[in-house]
Amino acid sequence: MNPMHKTLLTIAASALLLSACGSVSTTGVREHDSRQFAPAAELAFEARPGARAYYGTYDGVQGPAVYAAEIPDNWNGGLVMYTHGYRGTGSTLAPSPAPAAYRDTLLAAGYAWAASSYSANFYDVRAGVEDTNQLALELPVYLARDWNVTIEQPTQYLISGHSLGGHTAAAAVERENMQRTRYPVPYAGAAPLCQAEQNQFQWLGDYTRLAMTLAGFGYMPYERYPDLIGVLDGSGEPGPIVTNLFKVNPETGQSTWEPANLNGERLKAMAMQLTGGQRPIFDDGFGSRYQITVLSGGGDDGSVRGILSGNIYDNTGREYRWTDGAEPSAEEQAFNASIMRQSADRGVNPPRNDGVRWLPEVHGDFDVPVLTMHTLGDFYVPFVHQQLYRQGAIRNGNDHLLVQRAIRAPGHCDFSAEETQQALTDWLNWVNGGDKPAGDVVLDPVVVADDNYGCTFTTPQRDGLPACSR
Fold first, then answer.
1. Which ranges in the chain are annotated with CATH 3.40.50.1820?
2. What is the pLDDT of residues 262-291, one digit of tens each?
3. Which range is the signal sequence, renumbered to this chain (predicted)?
4. Which residues 6+ apart lie within 8 Å of 290 measured at CB?
5. CB 70 within 8 A of CB 54
6. How far is residue 114's CA from residue 112's CA, in Å, rounded to a whole number?
7. What topology does CATH give the domain 3-20+27-198+351-449?
8. Are 369 and 427 in contact (CB under 8 A)?
9. Of 30, 58, 76, 197, which residue is 20 to 30 A from 359 by alpha carbon distance?
């Protein structure tokens, strides 16, 4: 038997065994189930030199999905599944070519890549995992059907993506998801970049509740938040949550995101702790446009815009700090006693017997080489996800398979072409038997707080940011 087919059968058998054990819930009605999406009218994209581009549609877990693929003339048989980031809430599914530097690095190494639009927009990581896995296994079928092109089944599968796509790539190699997916793929490695994961919605819920409380509106129900935040995109006036905490430019009427008072400073300090602790570039990220992104999303029902059938957010046992002493101050204790508390709905995101969870989880439970990269100032999908990932890998005994790199930039997925090329090149060498690449320590607070943290893999240094001194 072909070793690849044998591996696929083994994973499939594990999935059947797992789904047969115990009670697995598939109940619950969610808004997302009734949504419909359609492929874009134009699917074509231009191939890079020395490669051929392919595109089309196929049936995914939620309906039709778009595929894109690029195969170099010197294909080595390896296939990297690229998983795209968040596409909003529209109904159109667009092709998803990877960034140019990403594509060029893979193609130069002899790898083909393929990407799914997923069969749904919104934050649908379930569609991301299932539709990507299906495409990985059935790409030869689609190319023969749509292009009259014959290719062999890939000899190696890898997976990598950005943001929501990083969540998808990390989830795809988690043991639970590899066992429960409808389409088991024996991925040999993963490179989740600037990845989100299920704790992203804890961060978004925490920050908006902290802002609402510190601005003086903690006595109101959280559903009132949208009325109190105002308009932050420049088309209207910011509301009292913003004006009570941040300075406002008198000429534009818009916030500068500079704390205006003690409560604004406390909000910033708590945000730093929640997003990864003291570290370079945090200040730059805190003052960035991603404040608008994070603050504008508050007041929701915790269902991740209908991806779940109930509320996933929970801060019942959360302790918020703006000081760094061994014990919380009296003022912090009083604040924690007064802040609004919310508990998650029971069984809101259970395992399923028809594939992965509605919101596939990431717990650092994998058995293949994984390389990640994250910007230190990312205020939207914060650096703390890397710390949680490392802690999970340690708990599962596979932290030796995890390499993480910190990049000194303030934006989300704000990687240079050089950083992308180096990370992918090192990752491909590692999964093919080469030396384990170097990475950054992420759990030692003294190391992370050093002024030169993140200098090792940042190329080039960004203008306007604190420079590395060594």
1. 3-20+27-198+351-449
2. 999 999 999 999 999 999 999 999 999 999
3. 1-26
4. 378, 379, 380, 411, 412
5. yes
6. 7
7. Rossmann fold (3.40.50)
8. yes
9. 58
